[in-house]
Amino acid sequence: MEAYRSQIILGCVAAYMLMCIGVGLWAMRRTKSTSDFFMAGRSLGIVVTSIAVFSSTMSGFGFVGGPGLVYRMGMSSLWMVVCTSIGFAVSFYLLAVRIRLFAELKDSISLPDAIGARYGSRSAAFWAAVAILLGVLGYLAAQILAMAHVTNDLLIASMGGSRLFGDFQLEACVAISSAVLVFYCVTGGIIASVYTDVVQGLMMIVAAVLVCAAAMNAVEGGFHGMSETLLQDDPASISPWGTLGMVGCLSWYFVFTLGGAGQPHVVTKMMMTRRIGDIRHMLPLSILGYSLTALLWISIGLAMRALVLQGHHPALTDANAAAPQFLQHYTHPLLAGLVFAGLLAAIMSTADSFLNIGAAAVVHDIPRALCGRSLNHELLWARIATVLIAVFAALFSLYSGERMVGLLGAFGWGIFAAALVPAVAIGFNWKGATPLAANVAVITSLVVNFGMMLTGWRLPYAFDSGAFSLILSLILFLGISLASRPPKLDPQIDAVMDL
């Protein structure tokens, strides 16, 4: 079987791709309206929604970027894993019931719709949509880049180490990945994403446990042997803070714990449930699934770093290759094929979510905020917008200046957190929050985040820019709201806020 390793892996991936095409075509038949395209008709059950929540959070950010961060920084990114699990609890406690009720009462098909209903303000909905669109570029770029790296490694392995596209190998893989994503997303909308999430989530839970066992067997002494090897090379890498340091890790703790309540790809899935009572069952299932799949994040990163330091594997020129390289060389071919298929599933379903909310911002939220109505032929324009957003995100993934998948994902997470946590997590629970405060918080967070990225300015002690902008937006949001006259709320919104 080892002699046919590349063929087995490619066969598993090809089978998965055919399944995606089938799901996309099936979902296209079910997608009759923009409500279906953006919100799955609010008809999802408990298991489907729970798996969709944790799958869209893990995605290529976790399966490709996570091991890369562990390989490069040691234990630093463990704070992301732990804090995201806590963030699920915070998000569900603060938002799940209210956001679903807002969606029911006001027929909201997007998060900016719900924000506009809460504040009675088209400007609040507009700036939320702008923040989502810009954040989508960062997070979607991470997904496309992750998919490109997986595709690149598979092509190189199948061709005996040669590069089919020469010096433009990564660019070509980005183009291929974007083309596959566009077909999948344009045909099926969010319905294709959430139902693929079910298959992908179950696959990755099983695969993560098996890969963790493979990582322990690949390094002599298991995790103890990995720890000793990393300790001898760089004691900081195996310390609780990793090589990022205490301040950087604590800033990640802050932005990934509280910031989960501002992630539109998670929050909007809370609006898709068939019944409001289903929400109480979703949280434990989502946390359990995320915790099990996170074993892959940690185990591959530590194992690959140890194998390189022990001289059993060549040093990686790109940390993003940690997961693909480990799967190709240190796991059973069938397991590698399963995980590669699951990796692509995670990336594609999450990318679909981001393309979906980005398209909603372009064709639904921004036009409604500016003109009072959506575009004519909204479903057609949603599909066109999906193509354009994918192209811009692909270019951003190549030319943003930072090609670490994990860091691109952290950048996108930080944009969403700083822009939306004040207006959503606090504003949906506090009647005193004002539209002006929400607008100022969103605009300030975008200026700070993108200003720091474009100028290359870094905070001391590796303090995360997303955490810094979140603190600033929270201060402004609270200060302006407290200094303003309490707003008059829509009676239905006021009643929901009292629950």
Walk me through the structure:
With 499 residues, the chain is mainly alpha-helical. The protein has helices spanning 5-30, 34-39, 46-73, 78-106, 111-119, 122-158, 169-218, 222-233, 246-258, 264-270, 279-309, 322-330, 333-371, 378-399, 405-426, 435-455, 465-483, 491-497. Helix 7 (169-218) crosses helix 13 and helix 7 packs across helix 14. The chain is globular and about 70 Å long. The termini are far apart.
| CATH fold-level topology | Sodium/glucose cotransporter
Order of helices and strands: HHHHHHHHHHHHHHHHHH
CATH architecture: Up-down Bundle
Biggest sheet statistics: none
Radius of gyration: 22 Å
CATH superfamily: Sodium/glucose cotransporter
What share of the residues lie within helices?
Answer: over 70%
Given helix and strand content, the structural type is: mainly alpha
| Poorly predicted regions | none
Q: Helical element count?
A: 18
Proportion of β residues?
under 5%
Count structural domains: 1
User: In the CATH hierarchy, what is the class?
Assistant: Mainly Alpha
What's the overall geometry?
A: globular
The total of beta strands comes to: 0
Outline of the structure:
This protein is mainly α. It has helices at residues 5-30, 34-39, 46-73, 78-106, 111-119, 122-158, 169-218, 222-233, 246-258, 264-270, 279-309, 322-330, 333-371, 378-399, 405-426, 435-455, 465-483, 491-497. The longest helix is centred in the middle third of the chain and has 50 residues, at 169-218.
